[in-house]
Amino acid sequence: MTPATEYPLNRHELFRAEITERGAGVQVVSIGRWKVAADGTRRRAGPALEVGCHRLAGLVRLVADLQRLVEEHQKEINDASAARRASA
């Protein structure tokens, strides 16, 4: 059995992360987007991101940094929109 975790995006799609073993016992994390059919069957939709388990902490930091940048950019957009509304 492959350990896995899922994060639903909506009722038709989800992110799924699996830990698999390759070659000489090397553990790999695979993260992919999956589609969920009406009958409950699932299929991968598009490519997966695969990284060695020993690199996972770096990937988590990368995603956290990206989230921070997106939140800062969204604040700038919201501030600009508020300024436009105030001047109108």
Automatic annotation (TrEMBL):
Keywords: Coiled coil. Residues 56-83 form a coiled coil. This is MerR family transcriptional regulator.
